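Lab notebook: predicted structure, single chain.

Context: the supervisor wants predicted structures on file for every construct in the current expression panel, including those that have not yet been purified. This is the next one on the list. No modifications to the sequence; it matches the entry in the shared construct table.
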Amino acid sequence: MPRVLGVDPGTVSVDVCGLDDGTLCLDRSIPTTEALADPDAFVALLASAGPLDLVAGPSGYGLPLIPAAAATEEDLRLAFLAAPGEAGGIGGLRHLHAALARSGLPVVYTPGVIHLDTVPSHRKLNRVDMGTADKVAVAALGAADQSQRLGCPPDETSFVMLELGGAFSAAAAVRDGRIVDGLGGTSGPIGWRSPGALDGEVAYLAGEVTKAMLFRGGAQSAAEADPSRQTLALDAFVEGALKAVRSLLVSVPAPREILLSGRALAEPGVRERLDAGLESIAPVRRLQGFARVAKAAAQGAAILADGLAGGRWRDLVDTLRLRSARGTVLEHLVVITPAAARRRLGLS
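Prediction complete. Output recorded below exactly as produced.
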């Protein structure tokens, strides 16, 4: 049976989760700055897990199951949506991917929500960030967890997943075990650090929207800029999350559960207010997972790797239709052309 790893590169930490025949065998969390400062040491940590059948690597906005060793410069630009010299975002990822590519480890990049053919095409119009690859992984963990707890097959799972990370807030709708809709961190509600979806006029007034701008201006920023706005910031954060869940009820009208995940759930008052605002829709539960340290996204990535390698979660991966993922994050654009978007990324 397969021995696999899942990796999640978060804004705050890079987490690694390993499964050996479906049993937890590696459970680590490393500060992002530390992990990216020495990519070779991080790759050595992965290699220390022993002979591996597959590693679900850090995939950004996602790629349709492309091995790291085969990923081109264009693939990486499309996965991380960063132009040459772009300083914003999570710095150091390019060096990490170079180290993974030359490592000889069986690393594969996994898709984001927009790559999945289970999401109807009309929901993708003028969208790029419907949920990064790590959000697909969290949804996979949610489906695995619900399937086990309720004793149902993966294709009978149904929920709205709300992921409130240390920087971004995102949500995904799962119906019949498949992701059918999503709101990504840069297209969804205000995040703890990030502004979420930008008002078009704000983008116009900014003159230029940089990658760094996507990581600042959230609830924490508002409270730090003016301590008297702390309550206002929390109101915006929680209400934005509630609206995100309710908007996805269009795509999954009768979810079995609302699943909560993410670092920001530990902030004072957040969990209690979410429970109160969502309990009339469906039972609300925090996604616990099976690891003690690694975040939900790393656990979910390990589940995806296990299923892709033919392990115990293969039925779940087949239900998610990961192998049918296709295309790029740019091909549904109309407000600007895909060609213009490619030029912004420095691609011909």
